[in-house]
Amino acid sequence: MAFLAALLFIQESDRTHFDQSSGEVTLAADPSRLAEHSRPTKWHVVTDMVVFRGRLLASACYDFDSEWFLKPWAYSNGAQILEYSPESDEWKLLHEMAESMVLNVRVVDDRVLIPEFFPLNGRSRLVHAFDGKEWGTLGLLPAQNWHVMDVLRFGGALYVSGSWRDESPGDDPRWWKGYGRVFRSADDGRTWTEIHRTKENGRVLDMVEFRGRLYANEIGKQFIAWDGKKWEEIPVRLEPKPPVEPKLGSAHLMVFADRIVAINSALYYLFDGKKWTSHTPGYVDLWREGKTLYGLRDDGHVCATRDAVAWERVTKEGVPAKEFARMAEKGRPLHRGAVAVHRGRLFVGTGAEGRIYAAPYHGKGRFVSKPQEIDLSKGGRLTWDAVVPKGTSLKVRVRSAESMEALDRAAWADAPAKGHRWVQWRADLASDGKRTPVARNVRIAGP
Predict the structure, then answer these.
(1) 68 and 87 belong to one structural domain
(2) In what helix (H) or strand (E) does residue 393 lie, and over which residues does it extend?
């Protein structure tokens, strides 16, 4: 596939990554290899990853040892929000969520919103909020809560999906019947109004916005679509009709290539607003990076596509398949594993032991900036900020010339020459593969 060859070629040619938003230069990582990066001290299942304001966050659940007639237990007794530190190349605890379970982490309106999926108490009526500094919660959802699954901004309002139990003292508590529901908030989550209830027991799962409507996975059987006034049921219909009735299952949803992508480990569906198609193999998680969609399979490999149909495997050395075992001893939640790309580096979180794998950095790399024209009639200087962890090195230099054509022949130096008009800087980076140096705020200016 041409696009993937180009992606790999770029990384092999200069082996660096330039972040457009921050202007930071780091070494690129080798996406064809995944190596064990972090072992859990507490967590057992990594359920999601997001990038928020340039920070890579992950949700992880732990302690699946509750007494229950189903073993292993599908719900955790605790969750943590982790943050990756590029400087130390470590995952650190950002927020502890005791007596909790988290499946989805969403970035909505320049804040992180985290629905609390479990347990059956007051905490399971919460959506947690993080603005980059402080943690808080949105307004409590209505009582009789069971699970909060997803949160989405659509048409100026916030929506929450999940399931709510109609509690009655006469009910058998072992059944814990709950109907899937969707709630809407017009006041940024302070108060909530129910706008949809399923006709049978189950959950309303992941949600996405697509072509001016809100779509949700209703109890793993079909889509429901909301235009702001009414709901439409959209069953999964394939042509020719398969021998077994198709169902969405616990499918994660993402919009890509002008279609909704709904994934399961065995297969995935595409829906263009009218027509359904199904494809194999399936995926455990998805990550969108620009015009490329990455998919994590339960065999431990990561694939990539630009049209959601033709995929090419990115990893030659993936994660051991046992890390995604469906019969894992430490719990079987709906989400089992996560994939992310951060600063050009591929990360995978697993669902059997809760480990995190990452692509190792290249040993050496060089970044050369675009030529720029500045006034150096009185001379100039090169300045930058840097983070250089142990085992890495960084050197930044500049070259200058009277014309842009002469710039390629100019020698690299520590400062631009007086009287020149065109300048260019370069950064040479080296690493032991575990960490990368970081060049920030590189500037060439007059004296």
Answers:
(1) yes
(2) strand 393-401
**What pLDDT, in 10s, does the model give residues 62-110?**
877 666 545 555 677 788 999 999 878 899 999 998 777 889 999 999 9
Q: Quick check: pTM over 0.90?
A: no
Contact 282, 297 (CB under 8 A): yes
**What range defines the domain where residue 346 resides?**
29-358
Contact 89, 390 (CB under 8 A): no
Residues 353 and 369 in one domain: no
User: Rounded to whole angstroms, how far apart are CA atoms 32 and 104?
Assistant: 27
Cα 401 to Cα 60, 308, 374, 427: the distances in Å are 53, 47, 11, 18
pLDDT digits (tens, 9 = 90+) for 112-131: 999 988 765 555 678 999 99
Q: Which residues of 220-250 are buried (b: 16+ CB within 10 A; e: fewer)?
A: bbbbbbbeeeebeebebeeeeeeeeebebbb
Residue 324 and residue 243 share a domain: yes
Last residue of some domain: 309, 330, 358?
Answer: 358
Whether residues 287 and 421 fall in one domain: no
